[in-house]
Amino acid sequence: MPPKKQTDLKDDLHFEDAIERLEKIIEKMENERVPLEEMLKDYEEGTKLLSVCKEKISIARKKVEKINKDLNKDAPKLDELDEIAD
User: Fold this and answer.
1) How far apart are the C-alpha atoms of 57 and 86, rounded to whole Å?
2) Where are the domains of the chain?
3) pLDDT by residue (tens digit) across 22-57?
4) What is the DSSP letter of 33?
5) Helix H segments across 1-86?
6) 15 C-beta neighbours (distance < 10 Å), count
7) What topology does CATH give the domain 6-85?
8) What is the model's pTM?
């Protein structure tokens, strides 16, 4: 089976799973004696996971901004509230 491409990894992996795997890689690199080739492989996987996490956070942030923008679009402005109070 060919290795997954970055786009496949991004689509198939949940944020929480990517973070969990990334944390395991970091812990392994900090606490174990690992052969250089294995460490490089883990480092490469970690950078891909980090990229996936950043992308998912960016998408989530944009969704939150859109929700807030849509929510605030219908909210009365301060000027309108002042006019109602007068």
Assistant:
1) 44
2) 6-85
3) 999 999 999 989 999 999 999 999 999 999 999 999
4) -
5) 6-12, 15-31, 36-73, 78-85
6) 14
7) Helix Hairpins (1.10.287)
8) 0.69
